[in-house]
């Protein structure tokens, strides 16, 4: 791997955020010949990317533009997987979804929608599900389940470490423990980044990709992005023997395999039990963690005892309307935003397209529906 950019540097770019969207954009910019400094408040993957279930999918019902972006995102992961099929932290072994017994109609509607959009989708009854996806307890499925054979998962901390190593090898810089960052503006144009640690980084362009903090950072510039980021938790188990390879998305627990023989588990039914302090630190009763582990155990053949190795709490980045936010701020030229709930699925493709937009100066057509100004435009109408 080359230790210098592929082409002479044509732009200096400062990226705020050490999660998947920030690191992906940074490495794609460096590949395109930019000189990049990535600035993160604490450490890489210390925020939402470090506690993401990171299910790679476009299952379910969403806008056509969002579906197209997610499918392109899966394609980039498959390209990476094809070159590295033995990676422990990137797998494509399918995904399974089912709803409550009294919501069978919604499962059937979801399946029809996926088929209509040419998304790999098989309807499987509970008796056959253990043969399709080994390791699932058949009695945990109340009716029909949807099996999406093309779905996968990624461990974002491992991916971020992989991309960060490439960024540095190509001449990019990573600044950790920088504290909170703000965009510098001169004559209504972004000119760099300042941090609470007292550092300044001059730049021709700035990327704001700091997860649930993104609306606040651009809010300082007078730009409104509606924020719907909820509290969330990811639990990682101690290693255990299990046969689960697919991602399981069920009414009471979502779980996937994780490197080292562990499982990653989350859901949202316990969100009202999470307490967020004034400093942003969160806590949750131990009984809620144990209940989530018990719910996940019931999904697995033999109902093995699951023990938590660690759990992480914080805000899950979700724009107010649920759709991603990508692109340059009209009000502050030179400042670009990357803010999305599906950071895992779109992480590679979003970084690629945003880097292309920055380097070429041309808005990418796949971001047409996801421009930041849509929130202020709605307010005016």
UniProtKB/TrEMBL annotation:
<dbReference type="GO" id="GO:0005737">
    <property type="term" value="C:cytoplasm"/>
</dbReference>
<keyword id="KW-0560">Oxidoreductase</keyword>
<dbReference type="GO" id="GO:0016491">
    <property type="term" value="F:oxidoreductase activity"/>
</dbReference>
<dbReference type="Pfam" id="PF01266">
    <property type="entry name" value="DAO"/>
</dbReference>
<protein>
    <submittedName>
        <fullName>Glycine/D-amino acid oxidase-like deaminating enzyme</fullName>
    </submittedName>
</protein>
<dbReference type="InterPro" id="IPR006076">
    <property type="entry name" value="FAD-dep_OxRdtase"/>
</dbReference>
<dbReference type="InterPro" id="IPR036188">
    <property type="entry name" value="FAD/NAD-bd_sf"/>
</dbReference>
<feature type="domain" description="FAD dependent oxidoreductase">
    <location>
        <begin position="13"/>
        <end position="356"/>
    </location>
</feature>
